[in-house]
Amino acid sequence: MNCKRIIPDAITSCNLLCGSIAVLLAVEGAFIWAFVFILAGAFFDFFDGLSARLLKAPSPIGIQLDSLADDITFGLAPSMMLFAFLRPILGWWALLALLMAAFSALRLAKFNVDERQHDSFIGLATPANALFWGGICCLPISVLAYDWMAWALIGLSLVSCFLLNAEIPFFSFKGFKRQKLEVISFLVGCVILIGFCVAKAITTKHIEFALFSGTACILWYVAMNLLLALTQKK
Predict the structure, then answer these.
(1) pTM for this structure?
(2) Residue 68 and residue 16 in contact, taking contact as beta carbons nearer than 8 Å
(3) Which residues, including other chains, have CB under 8 Å from residue 94's CB and lie 6 or more apart?
(4) How confident is the model over 73-108, as pLDDT tens digits?
(5) 174-208 core/surface letters (b: 16 or more CB in 10 A; e: else)
(6) Structural domains for the chain
């Protein structure tokens, strides 16, 4: 057995474990802690690939295991968060939120066989989608003052399902050399958005607003890429 291959797979398994814990916490309504474990899963997701490259130990099993772990952490966990968040208002109609888990699995399967996605993405990446929904579900339930707001979130989740698998290019940090201006502009916008959200959290003494900074950054990311896609078509 190649011991080097065990290390990346073990890190990937930590990602899966974090996602599983996040699902359980979401069911219990502990949304902030569920989001913390999704973020921890993202940390492990970054380092499993990095360790595989550094150790020169990529493996076909590791690729498949990574996708399975990602669908739990970035597909099922945020979907369960949204389901549990909306269920007090929508009842079992909130199960529509779980469609994101299915479309996340489809997106990950397509990524594994798509040769175009080495230094960029076609469709919204699952970690970005999870970051978006994690921040929303950490907000106080009082933000859903009217039933239509809950239905609006269901509608937005369907938009997420579309973006995950849409033939829309999304830039990646891996493509920094090719898209320096886009990446730098995105990071500058993120600094501004995070600063605003953190300041709001400090003044209101609600950590939820700091966690919402992830949602704001992903909105900025999606808006940038949609604008770039429209301008390139012209």
Answers:
(1) 0.89
(2) yes
(3) 82, 83, 84, 85, 86, 87, 150, 154
(4) 999 999 999 999 999 999 999 999 999 999 999 999
(5) ebeeebeebbeebeebbeebbeebeeebeeeeeeb
(6) 3-170 (1.20.120.1760)
